[in-house]
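Before drawing any conclusions, I looked closely at one protein, both as residues and as discrete backbone shape codes, quoted below without any editing:
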Amino acid sequence: MSEWPMVKLGEVCSISIGKTPARKEPRYWGEGLPWLSIKDMNQGSLILKTTESISKIALDELKITPYSVGTVLFSFKLSIGKVGITAVPLFTNEAIAAIEPKEQEALNKYYLMEVLREVGKTVEGNAAVMGVTLNKKSLAKLTIPLPPLGEQKRIAEILGGVSKAIQILEHELQLLGEISVLEQQNNLSTQKLSDLVTIRSGTVDPTLSVNRNLPHIAPDSIEKNTGRILQIRSCEEDKVTSGKYHFYKGDVLYSKIRPYLNKVVIAPFEGLCSADMYALRPKEGINSEVLQALLMSKDFLAYAEQWSGRASIPKINRKALLAYNVPKMTDKQVNEAKAKIQSIHKVVELKCRKLSLLQELQKSLANRAFAGLL
């Protein structure tokens, strides 16, 4: 173990929480100053842009001030452990904390960002197991190792290099995911998604002997943006008791909760899925690969976000999903799209393997660094 002192975050940092202006007040939103949500925290270590802005009216009426350039941000709700440093003045929502060293000579911001990244992984695991809910008070109680400033800078440089390599690879994977395999052609008519899929309905009891050993897939089982299953556990292992949907090999499983996370996977086996997901069975005129690509496309993401924004918990309902307009494709076009998708998947698989190796390296280096062994 390191001989460095362990300090509470609240002892060495000032912590403040963001705020979301009322959505029902249109005058608070639109052209104005950048407002950050968790979905904007995937742009690397420097936070440069946001998808939404709040107006000067919101600033004046709500008496809020932006975080300055160089502020360390940490997400502590929904997606725990996302970190970044502001490159422009901005505001955040209430799921993001601004964490500022009280003394710059005692705590390096880039070291703080890296140590928060690791703390976040531990906290996220505890939250999943024990239902831990973070707030400003509990954030202040989190402990971090505090080596001498020179050692902080050395650790930040080493871990920052690996983090940057990971971010570059994640960006490449994102770009691969954005390649359009469903070219919109002017001569193509459209049809509703309901013409191409059936949503499996009717829940089953996962505690029955016939079901409890079946694989259970929930939204947290799926990696965002990649269409990969992260973990496979049985219904019994997950200790699920409420009704689940029965899916079959080749079905496309779509997470309807927080659609911006883009969690869509082709089922490689039979199993049960969470009620927070749709199990879609492709009809004639589309196949699983093309359906998955359609649901992960930028056009559909924008559509899903538009509809999900109307709910208190972002989600797209069955009616809106099935009403989505899809270009009609010939069998030849469907097969060509499938071949293109398979080629992209091969490249994605190689990059995912490299990403996994980098993440293991990051974990190993972080463990050694914060134990004083690097």
Summary: The radius of gyration is 23 Å. The mean pLDDT is 88. Residues 190 and 327 are 4 Å apart (CA to CA). The chain has three domains: 6-146, 148-166+330-374, 190-328.
